[in-house]
Amino acid sequence: MIELRNIVWRRENRDILQGVDLTIKEGERWVLLGRNGCGKSTLLEMITGYLFPTSGTVDVLGNRYGRVDVREVRKKIGNIGPSLIEKLIARDPVWEIIVGGINAYLRIYEEIPDEVKARAQEELDRVGLGSRFDQPFGTLSQGERKKVLLARTMMADPRLLIMDEPCAGLDLYEREKFLDSLESLSKRVQGILYVTHHIEEIVPLFTHVALMAEGRIIAAGPKREVLTAELLRDAYDVPVDVRWMSDRPWITVEKEG
Questions:
Q1: CA–CA separation, 190 vs 21, rounded Å?
Q2: pLDDT tens for each residue of 101-113
């Protein structure tokens, strides 16, 4: 699904990414963790073809970037990032937001066939918001908007789903509802890469974790092997204790001394 080899990205004589290697296979659901500024979002920009490395190779869905039209690869990637909601029009009805996901349109200017509207209704039903079909997007709560973005993304039947902090700004209730919706939709994609700052968002659907620090991946593999107190301290420079409940990790900060 994704293969990164010795990725370096240099900006103003500073290496933002320093020899990153990462392999994500079909059927795996990965979480990318690390402090602010460690290079997580930059790495996602590489995978979606909006940035290109100073050196190293990027292969996504069997395509080597630099040898293919990345616009065609992006059609197979569902991408939910922090800037998308800001670009959408608050007064547009929810169904138009969802239908736009087929071709990554921000607005709809053409007649939409009834069968496409019906598909949008189905996707909205799957995330539990079927009654919001005609409601203006701007009247939804933050959590509801994030679930609409999930429905929008699935209209294109992506093979790979990439999410950059999708639960940012959500309260506890809306976060859990979003994660429930994601779990039900995850069966329809072949791979997931999910970026977060919050370890408690690593629900059972996720299988692997990559831990970043200062532009490098310091650990990557099955989540229970990576989410240890020792490795988390290396990444965050904070002493923590990790507990597992129902295949979901929870951390507490330990006092030193």
A1: 20
A2: 887 777 777 788 8
